[in-house]
UniProtKB/TrEMBL annotation:
GO molecular function, one term: metal ion binding
PANTHER family membership: 2-OXOGLUTARATE (2OG) AND FE(II)-DEPENDENT OXYGENASE SUPERFAMILY PROTEIN (PTHR10209:SF874), OXIDOREDUCTASE, 2OG-FE II OXYGENASE FAMILY PROTEIN (PTHR10209)
Matches recorded under InterPro entries: IPNS-like_sf
Domain of life the protein comes from: Eukaryota
Name of this protein: Non-haem dioxygenase N-terminal domain-containing protein
Keywords in alphabetical order: Iron, Metal-binding, Oxidoreductase
UniProt key word Flavoprotein: no
Length: 358
């Protein structure tokens, strides 16, 4: 199954409330509902921007572990800087209920079984303003910039802001498509704890077919966005349970529904389950990269967009009367995030705690 690509250019020209945009808003909400994912093309986020970001992150992740560990802040629960491989744990590895559900799935759609924590590195970079008055003050930590990367701050901030701009347009379109006011989601996102959180996976060590980089999970934030990765490997599960390997066309962005949009729509749009594994197509891309002497680090240019921590998650507008609304009782977004993290939290053992996936 091919996901449709939504070109945002006409929407940026006339706005999502223009009568011409109505059909596209409907496609956005329907695709998110049926697949948990969406491909968009935003003229403000070019393939060159994505390349510039990935080039820098490849150069970073390729540094020796001792260098990267200088950017590690375990005492700040990895909220900023680098998280080494082997720290983040997929929910399917620690949640017996989820394991039971997976065993009941038809074999062809079952996810790969992770053998332990995810073998991927991650870098956390905060994007956008934070509230000065909040019950959920993030740790008062300076952003971490590795030595020898003078372009770091500009590259991270510019990619981060571009991704948030794309998410905001999609969030407005989705709100309209779901029959809510245009700013139903974006007004709740203001000053949210958005995080640019690219991952790096070393395919020169872990390039065997079937190897799991990110075990089956959902994202606990509102919407997640990525540019095209140089190595395929992302599988998503459609609402009806089929597993689909995602193909992101050049210059397009992939958006995935997280748990917070599920809450706000009373289960109309559920969080998309996904995993990252080495597939046949990944192996082909590894061979091509080797032939061309390119980096074998798989970088994902992920940004997690959040509902602001002090806002309440609850079914919005007409979704308050939806069939499943009682499964989504009001909860403050910051509390919800803490609750989710406590399930997969191995802080006592490994120092993990701020993995924004689940
Ligand atoms: Fe994820």
């Amino acid at each position: 199954m091919e996901l449709p690509v939504i070109d945002l250019s006409p929407i940026l020209a006339v706005g999502p409330t223009d009568p011409q945009s109505e059909k596209l808003c409907e496609v956005v909400s329907r695709t998110l509902r049926e697949t948990g994912a969406l491909l968009v093309k935003d003229p403000r986020c070019s393939a060159e921007d994505n390349d510039r970001f990935i080039d820098m992150m490849e150069r970073y992740f390729q540094q020796p572990p001792d260098f990267k560990r200088l950017q590690e802040r375990p005492y700040l629960h990895y909220q900023v800087g680098v998280t080494p491989e082997g720290v983040e744990v997929p929910r399917s590895f620690v949640d017996p209920q989820m394991q039971k559900k997976l065993k009941a799935m038809p074999e062809e759609f079952q996810p790969a079984t992770p053998r332990g924590p995810d073998p991927k590195w991650r870098y956390m970079w905060r994007v956008g303003p934070r509230p000065s008055d909040t019950r959920f003050q993030e740790l008062n930590s300076e952003p971490v910039i590795p030595e020898g990367f003078p372009e770091w701050k500009e590259t991270m901030d510019s990619w981060g802001y571009k991704m948030i701009s794309a998410i905001e347009v999609v969030a407005e379109m989705a709100a309209i498509g779901f029959g809510l006011p245009r700013d139903a989601f974006t007004s709740l996102m203001k000053q949210g704890p958005h995080l640019l959180a690219p991952t790096g996976s070393d395919l020169s060590c872990y390039g065997q077919e079937g190897f799991v980089f990110a075990g089956y999970h959902y994202d606990l934030n509102f919407l997640t966005i990525h540019g095209k990765s140089r190595f395929p490997g992302l599988n998503i599960w459609l609402r009806r349970g089929q597993k689909v390997e995602v193909k992101v066309p050049v210059g397009c962005l992939l958006i995935q529904a997280g748990k917070q949009i599920e809450w706000l729509t009373g289960g109309e749009c559920i969080a998309g389950m996904h995993e990252v594994v080495v597939t046949k197509r990944t192996v082909d891309a590894i061979k091509a990269a080797q032939d061309q002497n390119r980096s074998l680090w798989r970088v994902s240019s992920t940004l997690f967009a959040h509902i602001a921590s002090d806002n309440v998650l609850k079914p919005l507008g007409h979704y308050v009367k939806s069939e499943y609304a009682s499964q989504y009782p009001p909860i403050v977004a910051g509390e919800y995030v803490e609750q989710e993290l406590s399930i997969i939290n191995l802080r006592g053992k490994a120092g993990d705690g701020d993995n924004l996936e689940n």
